[in-house]
Amino acid sequence: MNTRNVVPVPGLNEGKKEQVAGMFDRIAHKYDFLNHLFSMGIDKGWRRKAIRSIYDIHPSLILDVATGTGDFAMAAMAIHPEKVTGIDISEGMLEVGRKKMAEAGLEDRIHLEYGDSETMQYEDNSFDAITCGYGVRNFENLEKGLTQMHRVLRPGGKVAILEFSRPKTFPVKQLYYFYFRYIMPKMGKMVSKDATAYTYLPESVMVFPEGKEFTAIMEKCGFRNAKAQPLTFGITTLYTATK
Q1: C-beta atoms surrounding 207 within 10 Å
Q2: Which residue of 36, 94, 170, 232 lies most exposed, with the fewest beta carbons within 10 A?
Q3: Residues contacting residue 234 through CB under 8 Å, at least 6 positions apart
């Protein structure tokens, strides 16, 4: 499945991957602040829940795809892995993340490096678990990225993916759409000084496959027992699966 139909800046002579990398480079300095502000801190609980979903296999080696500034990688420390590797296509986000790891004294346990989800350089069956927070929606080719994640996961390993979804019940649905379409873009532009990032976010969420549609894609890419668990009235969804 190609997910190029929504890009940060329509009309540019660049692919989705290049546009997404550039967008995150531009907002990297304000990303953590805005991320926690817009979610009112609830995002921390979402990541903790995702990490608990892989705890039962006691993963030693974890890969965090689209790691950004490394928040998900840091959350994984709660289950005491030997090492977490975080990859991202935005060098700006990685630079911020590496500073965070240094300040937290986690450089020896969390390694952040440039990496494309669709062309991973790791060998087959390299990781015990894989996490991805709000990154699959930005893949240029969703199925290619998921297939790569499946390839580098060991047999019996688990994947935990967090992604925004669309609430279905009144009045959460109406409040969410208003906030997403009108409040978030204006606040995002004002704080980050980037006019595109927080317009692209709601637009990409509206067209991204969710729930059973997304778990079906995961299983098509090789995963087993794919499940979708809506969180906080369906604002976000935790997807889990095994290999």
Answers
A1: 10
A2: 170
A3: 165, 166, 167, 168, 169, 172
Neighbours of 201 (CB within 10 A): 21
pLDDT for 4: 44
Side by side, the strands of the sheet bearing 61-65 are 110-114, 83-88, 61-65, 127-133, 153-164, 236-242, 224-231
Please answer whether residues 93 and 66 qualify as being in contact, where contact means their C-beta atoms are separated by less than 8 angstroms.
Answer: no
Question: Which DSSP symbol is given to 89?
Answer: S
The per-residue pLDDT for 207 is 92
Residue (of 110, 1, 6, 7) closest to 63 by Cα position: 110
Q: What is the chain's Cα-based Rg?
A: 17
Q: Tens digit of pLDDT for each residue in 8-48?
A: 777 677 889 999 999 999 999 988 888 877 777 899 999 99
**Among 64, 57, 153, which residue's Cα sits nearest to residue 110?**
64
Q: Which two tokens stand for residue 206?
A: 């509206």
Rounded Cα distance, 210 and 174, in Å: 18
Q: Where are the domains of the chain?
A: 16-165+208-242
Q: Which CATH number fits domain 16-165+208-242: 3.40.50.150, 3.40.50.720, 3.90.1150.10, 3.20.20.80?
A: 3.40.50.150
Distance separating alpha carbons of residues 11 and 228, to the nearest angstrom: 34
